[in-house]
């Protein structure tokens, strides 16, 4: 159906719908694949009722194996090496269904892959059969060395696929961490008042307040002065402080008052010091 160069140096591609894969007990058998097809069809009916569509994939067939890729991103989803494929068949009652059984390289389990090939199931089966014939001829020509080379290439491809998946997961985790860091940071200008600066003693500096303007009374005149408290506070020795506005002549005893009067008269008449007369004027503060 295809030239040997097309399968040996390149690949043959088919666009199909991928129903999925499931584990089987045996590496080959018609009844084995029929049970796998019924199982996967039932699962697809359930997913279709939930609104999920059957994904479309691209099959790449060559002498090295069968690859299942995403048709847009070309990302390899499954890489089934040819020497691990043990059975391949199409459904004679349904020309759309194509299946093959491949042994998984990690779990060593036999998995049956089922595809809906838009009435190309028989052609895909013959293409894989032609790839097997070409691979067997190259095996005889190389004395078995080519098989080991394909195994090493397949192992390297699987390693690359695992590293790409790990890299994609790390990118997702990095994106989540960046989003969390952006949320935890407080953006500027969020309405919070700035902190008041303090001095070296961690105290808020004094800010002078403007003087309070006197309130006008209802009739337009100045308000009366505040009333003095009736009870005088005492100092640390228990004595009442001297208030020149409240004390008068009647506040002192007669003997003390007479002494004060004499002293006041003496200041008015003048003082004699070493024969010199000084006249002291207490109101003007000069003599």
Features:
single chain, 287 residues, 7-stranded antiparallel beta sheet, two-stranded antiparallel sheet, 9 strands, 36% helix
Q: What features would you describe in this structure?
A:
The protein is of the alpha+beta class. The protein is about 35% helix and about 20% strand. The chain has 5 helices and 9 strands; from the N terminus they run αβαββββββαααββ. Strands 4-3-2-1-7-6-5 form a 7-stranded antiparallel β-sheet, sandwiched between helices. Strands 8-9 form a two-stranded antiparallel sheet. It starts with a helix and ends in a 9-residue tail after the last strand.
Share of helical residues: 25-40%
**Outline, from the CA principal axes?**
rod-shaped
Query: H/E order of the elements?
Result: HEHEEEEEEHHHEE
What average pLDDT do the residues reach?
76
Strand content: 15-25%
Q: How large, in whole angstroms, is the Cα Rg? A: 54 Å
Q: Give a count of the beta strands, DSSP E runs of length 2 or more.
A: 9
* Spatial order of strands in the largest sheet: 4-3-2-1-7-6-5
> How far apart lie the N and C ends?
141 Å
Which class of secondary structure composition applies to the elements?
Answer: alpha+beta
Low-confidence stretches: 271-276
Count of separate DSSP helical elements:
5
Describe the biggest sheet?
7 strands, antiparallel
